[in-house]
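Notes to self, ATP-binding cassette domain-containing protein:
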Amino acid sequence: MKKRKKQGKSTLSQLRPYFAPHKWGFLMSALMVIAQSVCLAIMPSVEGRITTQLAADVTDMAKHISGAGIHYQAILHIILILVIIFIIKTIVGALSMISVTHATQGTMQTLRDALQKKIHTLPVSYFDEHPYGDVLSRITNDVDTISNACQMTLLDIVGGILSVALALVMMYRIQPVMAAVGTLIIPLALLITWVVVRCSQKQFRQQQDAVGQLNGRVTELYTGYHEILLYNKQKSAEQDFRKVNHHLQHYVFRAQFLSSTMSPLILLVTYLIIGSTAALGCNYVLAGGLTLGALQAFINYIWQLNDPLSRISQMSGQIQSAFAAAGRVTDFLAQPNEVPEADPPAELGKVHGQISFQHVSFSYGEREIIHDLSFTAQPGQMVAIVGPTGAGKTTLINLLLRFYDVGSGRILLDGRDIRSFRRDDLRSAFGMVLQDTWLFSGSVADNLRYGKLNARRDEVVSAAKAANVHHFIRTLPNGYDMRVNEEGSNISQGEKQLLTIARALLRDPPILILDEATSSVDTRLEKCLQDAMQNLLRGRTSFVIAHRLSTIRSADLILVLQDGRIVEQGTHQSLMEKGGFYARLYNAQFVQTE
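result:
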């Protein structure tokens, strides 16, 4: 229990910097809640005065006292006071809600910005180990859960504590002995709350984790929709989804069931306390030590004790979900960042494009991916990297871009270790066409400008022409202004590949990386690409990874990787004459194409 308390305090302390800029909004809301609670505490006593006045008038009339009757003017005066108090309570309640909503949404915006910024500082290995859906859930679902708790629960908790305190003061003013009995509701309610929260806390954490798993599975089903249909795996996918969904339902049910027992138990205690104090109060009324209106007010104050305690108990599930969500968010924010930059970093300056790998090794966990790899690419050379799946081709590029840092050895750019540069500066020297093409929702022109946001329209068109995609764009509705759907679903895979190549060319980097750049392009488009590549890559250091070896015959240097080692290197002609691994690989592909 102590460990959980420490974790809760640690979570709150980590979130405090995000709430601090909006503290005045929360303070304003708290002041309005205080005013609202004071109004609420006054109302039962004022209502009791009406009952006392009516009881006195009826008693005088029953005794046939001369001039006895209902004092309507006095009663109307009391009702007017009640109306004024109610109006004030309503106004301050609205102001409180407005203040806390503004402060909460400002805090959540700050928190989301921090999470988004954190994403860009995390090492690539984090995303290799954590499902995309789980990361998405922390930024969306978990932040929304915290937001709902702050916006609604915070007011109820602060208002509830004040209402309980003021109700106790008023109860002890009316009758101390009865108040002592009525006060028993508090420790009993707290005991019930503590027991239920302790039993359900683990379930709420599992519930939030299950939501993240469900989001991850939904993302997989969506992104792999065509493959699922192609391989007739609909039933298998449905079974996997039902399994995850069943786990979520199981944890949600257990968490909500346990937390839902709290309110009925507190209500039972409240009725027992009211019955006891009402019986005791009747004796005081008959003895003349208490007015009927005071007894009515006292019972209303007991309900004022019950209401916030019941609301807090009903919100226990939301509170625990919020703590679980806050724990997941702070856990994400506390993840270690990438290896720190060099201090001070070296100036990149003009890049000539010489790349040198010197005895580079890299391991992912305990598995060695790259072993003692050495080669040099001279400025303007086209370097092709080939090899079977898992040979380390993409890892080599990831090391060059510092998505990962080398385990041993070093990589030099124009004779300087790439670790001496800021990552942003280093990557600004590269243009890259990824194996999985990525287009965002926006116009075709905006997608091409992604690598150079200030590019003029004529520069965009020139890059498209250079990538042999200009003619295709002209055939689209609205041409360069056509809106691309999310993930580019309204453009074929081949055209998307060419658009991403045009994007890289518009950036005009000194070094170009084509990662499986032609693997998704049909024969016709591949011919267009090959014709353009001879001119596009001239004067620019380039690295090309391709399974189609026919596309890299003109490469200045071909690196043949196998199990993370360079087993052969040279030109296409020299490697074919050697008759080694590359020649066998090339001939095998040539036979397949016959």
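- The longest strand covers residues 367-377.
- The chain has three domains: 1-173+291-338, 176-289, 355-591.
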